[in-house]
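Record format v2
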Amino acid sequence: MSLQIVSPTGGIAPLLRAEGVSLEYGSTRATHNVSFDVYRGDRFVLLGPSGCGKSSLLKAAAGFVRPRAGSISINGAPVDGPGPDRIVVFQEFDQLPPWKSVLENVMFPLLMTKRVSRHEAAERAAHWIARVGLGGFEHAHPHTLSGGMKQRVAIARALAMQPDVLLMDEPFAALDALTRRKMQEELGRLWEELRFTLLFVTHSIEEALVVGNRILLLSPHPGQVRAELNSHQFDLASAGSPEFQAATQRIHNLLFNPVGPAQAATHAERAGQAASPDWSAAP
Ligand SMILES: Nc1ncnc2c1ncn2[C@@H]1O[C@H](COP(=O)(O)OP(=O)(O)OP(=O)(O)O)[C@@H](O)[C@H]1O
């Protein structure tokens, strides 16, 4: 089956919407006029080469960075700062305070909301720790855990908050290949059970195909939308198949050897592309 350009999701309001987002750091323009819609239950991947502004877009969705132009909204309301409806899992293993146990790490943001008692927070934390396969490690401290286990704690901490959108910034990039694969598998399993909404950043084409059901391809610096495609037909089981390899090659070509001058596709143009089911119709 070939990759398909994304079809418009007629009538359904997006959960998270980025409209014409340009991000700047001083005189450095990180992204230019980027638009995309994330729907409930999506595993939406931002894919592009290093420096194209993927992390910056994720930080903007999290409310840590304000767009220079354009806007980001969640549930129809503008994002104007961080909130418990959007929780981020970062790549870095040091995202867990080292003086807190696994249980305390997962409880911490729950307690910060002041919406649950200490007892409830502990129960909820223990539940999510077990869900990510770390039952028995509640009282361990981060420095005694492997990189993969630390990322599991970060995922448990995020899911315990039951955010509207789980934001993941290259969460498995610092792991060895086998652990990375295992974590991708676990994330897929959790998604099958819980159907949370995921916004996931990676520069790995393979990871994007395995993790995502929709992928936004960004051009190099400053990041602009090159294309958007459906990738729900791929998973770890299909990785390595001829179709998977062909999709990988096509995405690679689109990112690095586009035919003709690099052109950013606008939101409206991408909706127009949906009329063509064939990946080869991409700009
Ligand atoms: N805090 C910052 N201050 C100044 N410039 C920044 C800052 N963060 C990012 N940039 C710049 O913005 C651009 C986009 O960076 P960003 O980290 O968002 O890209 P990325 O696609 O996530 O890259 P990578 O895959 O390497 O993490 C780069 O040119 C980067 O140097």
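The first helix runs from residue 54 to 62.
Confidence is low (pLDDT under 50) at residues 271-283.
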